[in-house]
Amino acid sequence: MHDLVKCALQNLTRKRSRSLLTILSIGVSVASVVLISSIGTMGTQMVNQEINSLGIGALTVSVDGMAKSSIALKKEHLDFLRSQPGVEDAVPILAEKGTVEMKNCSFDGMVWGIDAGANQIFHLDLQFGRLLREADITSAQKVCLVEETLAQEIYHRDNIVGKTMRITLDGKQETFEVIGVVASGGNLLQGIIGEYVPSFIYLPYSCMQTTSTNAGFDQIAIQLEEGTEVEGFAQRIRTQLDEREGRTGAFATQNIAQQKDKLNHIMSLVSGILAVIAGISIVVAGLGIMTVMLASVGERTREIGIKKSIGATKGNIVQEFLVEALALSCIGSIAGTLAGLGIAWVGCALGKIDFSFDGKMIQAVFLFAVANGLVFGVYPSVKAANLDPVEALRHQA
What we know:
Elements: H1 2-14, H2 16-53, E1 59-63, H3 75-82, E2 87-102, E3 105-114, H4 119-122, E4 126-129, H5 134-138, E5 143-147, H6 148-155, E6 164-169, E7 172-182, H7 187-193, E8 199-204, H8 205-211, E9 219-224, H9 230-245, E10 251-255, H10 256-299, H11 301-309, H12 314-351, H13 359-385, H14 389-395
Parallel strand pairs: 3-8, 5-7
Antiparallel strand pairs: 1-9, 1-10, 2-3, 2-6, 2-9, 4-7, 5-8, 6-7
Helix pairs in contact: 1-12, 2-10, 2-12, 2-13, 10-12, 10-13, 11-14, 12-13
């Protein structure tokens, strides 16, 4: 085997330019698939992080759209849910798009009414100041939390604790004091679709109820204890809430984790389709290997005739050419894999993004490229092995 590899490498170096171009074509095709796969993996990871940072519990409870006119989520519903076994925490949520005025700037913002301790579900990462306290909720204090991106846009610095802003909800304007700055949720989403993901502002839900016309809650977010079966819990809660109201189908639940899984599936499907499209270039590169090997058979016809005349079998000739095809495939695949990962790493370093890749996908791409080279090397190998030694010697005579 050692002699076969040595002989194959020697034959490839006879036409270095041709061999390098073939290796380059394989490398480029493999690099493109590896790069797309890595981008898909990192994209899914980033979107998951951004969705988590937007503030989502494991389960949300809301009034069904058909029953909203006669039923509203209230404090008694919140207390009932908090008392249920398997519930780690439950917080009320009010959400409304409002007009925000700050330092002579006016813009639309997403205003959230939350409870003290909501950071366990909303993943509020405090940077400056403090979070909402129970006293802020009970006394409906006109205080708020803002995101770092908003502070940077208005004041060009992160810490704006103590500043005030005017928020208009349902036509009623109130002045609020900034008591805390939290890490921005949805940086990626805001950067891509900022028109639909505005800056987030967090108020005590009691204060928001007095400022707007909404006396109830839009939703109640529930954080379940680890190991709790979400779907079964959701079904039980809907039934119990319906019984309390004496109605059927009055409440709805949404499993946020399940929605995130669906999104991950869609992203994986899109990444897979793009990888398959890019993988076509690997097949094209395999045709290049076949072309090079056929050209090599034509140039080495007399050499093949001499080898067969002194005892070389068809199997020996097939092995020799297959090893050459394997060498081209392996060198090109290794170079392409390293190049694809290298480009992805450089891009992550420049964009300050965590670098990651799917090892199983990379391995599959590598093996496919190598196998593809071998498959396209079979025909030239068999053609060389079937040459008649007398005709082969005469061809070069």
